[in-house]
Specification:
Length: about 450
């Protein structure tokens, strides 16, 4: 009989671990490799099954590092995101476990309490709890496409420390009173554990609100680029209409000018920006908008732009993602060029879409090259997060992080290298068979 009950007990906590892991999948990407998922499943099982008694710090202090290690090895995302999500779930489940193991047994009927040591009925409450945790996370988790910067994850980590600190204070730092027994636990600790338990609701809400706010900021940036793009197009159309209106006058002037001045006048007329400037570099309107706006900035700062674009259709990615890829990469390249003499300011942009893949390569002179001509250090293939050279490092240097996040989310690859005095950023994304956005 006890053996059957123990098997049922194991099955119940396997279900709890499955629900916990799939709840986490709504707020962080989990690796598709089976051994990494198995490691995370083991961490979730240990988290759910662990007995947490007040004044017994061994279990909780052992489980936290194991669970965080499983998160770091099994999930995708930044370090701060992994730690924050890991502490959110661990503090919530630990709070429930402490309530389950210290307070719920006192609420059970007398018959159940008499056989509690043989079969812990109170621990069966873990299944409905993890089910509610899973359903709540699935319902209120932010959109997977709404990502947060590392600075926001660090802020959320500070908020997560509070509920975790409450649990640790109650379980690890508890000093019992003389009349304390497990049969009559103090109610104030239950209140603290409940506060820690329900902190998960506010933390998940904070993640959703902050992710939504960051997405709105990206959309505003995209809207501003589009506005400037269409203003430039409107100005070009105005210049073309003006040229057409004055075309008869220009023809009369050309016919009246002597031969030696006619050619110079024709060259001046052909050099009008309305005739020489193009706003349609490829078949994607977002790429055209970003390139048009950035090219006008480069011309103002005397930066030569060499472009090769072979994108015959609209790219099947989110518009804000395409804007961020081009805008962040070009901003970094322009920042580097501004440190050089005007004759050295050259940016090369090559982009192509076809045969199931979209490729983007942007290169510019390497400003980290030493005076003796040697390169200051080749950047490893996976060392993608370079320090910003701007004074305000807290608010800059996020361009490459944003590019990397988009590339990873779209299941692509990214490489940075410096060679022969040239800094080169190369990335590629698979083209979905259907015109759909990245998951």
């Amino acid at each position: 009989m006890i053996t059957i009950l123990n098997i049922c007990f194991i099955i119940i906590f396997l279900a709890c671990a499955w629900l916990t892991m799939h709840a986490m999948a709504y707020v962080i990407d989990i690796s598709e490799k089976w051994y990494r998922r198995l490691l995370l499943f083991a961490g979730c099982y240990l988290l759910c099954v662990m007995i947490i008694f007040i004044e017994d710090p061994v279990n909780i202090l052992f489980t936290i590092p194991f669970f965080l290690t499983a998160i770091l090895l099994s999930c995708r995302g930044s370090f701060w995101q992994k730690v924050t999500i890991g502490l959110m779930f661990s503090s919530t489940i630990f709070s429930f476990n402490a309530l389950r193991d210290n307070y719920i047994p006192a609420l059970l009927p007398e018959t159940c309490r008499q056989i509690e040591h043989g079969f812990p009925f109170a621990r069966l409450c873990s299944l409905p709890f993890t089910l509610m945790l899973y359903l709540y996370t699935r319902q209120f988790a932010p959109d997977k496409n709404d990502t947060l910067s590392d600075s926001m994850w660090r802020l959320l980590l500070l908020l997560t420390v509070t509920p975790l600190g409450i649990v640790l204070d109650v379980v690890v730092l508890f000093h019992p009173y003389n009349d304390y027994t497990l049969a009559q636990p103090h109610p104030e600790y239950a209140i603290l554990l409940l506060i820690s338990l329900f902190a998960f609701i506010s933390l998940l809400w904070c993640i959703k609100v902050m992710a939504r706010q960051q997405k709105l900021e990206q959309q505003n940036m995209f809207a501003e680029i589009n506005r400037r793009y269409y203003e430039a197009m409107e100005q070009q159309h105005f210049e073309i209409r003006r040229l057409k209106h004055d075309l008869a006058n220009h023809i009369q002037i050309l016919s009246a000018l002597p031969e030696d001045k006619r050619e110079a006048y024709a060259k001046e007329l052909a050099g009008n920006p309305a005739l020489s400037q193009s706003f349609a570099y490829c078949g994607d309107s977002t790429v055209n908008a970003v390139l048009t706006v950035k090219k006008s900035v480069m011309e103002r700062w005397h930066i030569h732009l060499d472009m090769e674009t072979d994108i015959p259709m609209q790219l099947p990615y989110d518009r804000t993602d395409i804007c961020a890829l081009y805008a962040n990469a070009l901003d970094n390249a322009m920042e580097a060029c501004m440190k050089l003499e005007e004759v050295q300011r050259v940016i090369c942009v090559k982009s192509k879409a076809g045969k199931g893949v979209f490729c983007l390569e942007i290169s510019n002179p390497d400003t980290n090259e030493k005076q003796d001509g040697s390169v200051s250090g080749k950047i490893a293939k996976h060392d993608l997060l370079l320090p910003t050279s701007k004074p305000d490092k807290a608010n800059h240097g996020l361009g490459l992080k944003s590019i990397r996040e988009i590339v990873e989310r779209c299941h692509g690859s990214m490489e940075i290298k410096t060679e022969n005095g040239v800094f080169d950023l190369f990335l590629y994304l698979p083209l979905p068979s259907a015109l759909s956005t990245c998951p």
